[in-house]
UniProtKB/TrEMBL annotation:
Signal peptide: none annotated. Residues 272-333 form the SH3 domain. SUPFAM superfamilies: BAR/IMD domain-like (SSF103657), SH3-domain (SSF50044). This is Endophilin-A. Gene3D superfamilies: Arfaptin homology (AH) domain/BAR domain, SH3 Domains. SMART domains: BAR, SH3. The keyword Iron does not apply. Residues 26-272 form the BAR domain. It holds the Pfam family BAR.
Amino acid sequence: MNFNVDLKKMVRDAGTVVNRVVQLTGEKLGTSEKTELDAHFENLAERSDITKTWTEKLLKDTESVLTPHPGNRVEDYLFEKIEKKKPNRLNNLEHLGQDMIDAGNEFGPGTPYGSTLLKVGQCEQKLGKIEHEFITNANACFLSPLKKYLDGEMKTIMTERGILESKRLDLDACKNRVRKARSMLGQPTKEGPSPEYLLQQAERDLRVAQAEFDRQVEITKLLLESVSNSHSSHLRCLHDLVDAQLLYYQQCTSALQELKNEISNLFLFSNRKKMRAKVLCGYDARNSQEISLMADEIITVETISENESDYIMAIRGDQRGRVPLAYLEILPN
């Protein structure tokens, strides 16, 4: 019994699909009439299409800005689909910073070039971390809400519009059957149902199709009218994105300004006249600006300023600090 019911349903559904295809083909050939929706509905539908198109484009563009490497974007997409955590990969700034640090250690932390490489490398790594934070913030405040909208509300709108188009094709197919049945009135029939019966059946189907179409129009219209509310939500997301960018660039500017000051001082120190000195006796540093020395070791020194004749800047490996001049014997070059 269930098999017969399922078979009948399959036949009915197949007939419905055929009717829709015939109706759509006739519309394209200009041989069938098409039910038009009112201007207000069409405006709402157009606004929905524009919103979908531009939201998808803005989403794609933003992803390209946040993750420039296309391979990484594909990898992130696949991890997102299988609901796995994205890999913690180093960004370009962090790679650059690590190479600078390695090079600085190779050239020697006590050399001007080596010490500057270390400073710049550390800053590049800091900028890389700031970039990671910005990407995380931008994803949370802008990308995720837009993706959620496209996968949720907009997907529902497109689904209901597809149902509406099917209902519209069914309605117009019914209208064509009614017109055909009316054209057969008064004509003799040899066998089968009479034209009057076919007309009654076609009109009954038309009433059902019209009711289903009208109900689907109202459902779809309500969803389309909600697009304006979505624009307000997207506006807030846009403000949040700007705030995230502003914070990002402020943090970058602050880090770079701090680096600029540090390497400027290193440059000034590196241009001072360097001398060698022998430590006459051990010295223990009294504060963080000084360094400790061991008796009889040979170190590099340079003058601090004309106003500080009692102290000198000592360079001992990767250490740098002030020491009293009295503890040293300046060696001839």
